Automatic annotation (TrEMBL):
Name assigned to this protein: CopG family transcriptional regulator
GO biological process assignments: regulation of DNA-templated transcription
């Protein structure tokens, strides 16, 4: 996959501490930042997917064709299956 540069400003002290912490763990600062970015994007995409699924479920549950089952009935059915 092609790569590109990503430049941003950060305080000198934070940069030095971050690079030092990365080196302590035998990692590069760029590797850690790349991993953080990937995790953040994946989390954001998953959250968007999950919210969409919940919204769809709520719409489906609000349909008059849906037969609702009370909590007590669910508990009784589960207990009866054991």
């Amino acid at each position: 996959m092609p790569e590109t540069n990503f430049t941003f400003r950060v305080e000198d002290d934070l940069k030095d501490r971050f690079v030092g912490a990365a080196q302590t763990n035998d990692l590069s600062a760029s590797m850690l930042l790349r991993e953080f970015m990937q995790n953040y994007v994946e989390k954001t995409e998953h959250d968007a997917w999950f919210r969409q699924e919940v919204e769809q479920g709520l719409v489906e549950a609000a349909s008059p064709e849906v037969k609702l089952i009370s909590h007590e009935d669910v508990v009784a059915r589960v207990r009866a299956s054991f």
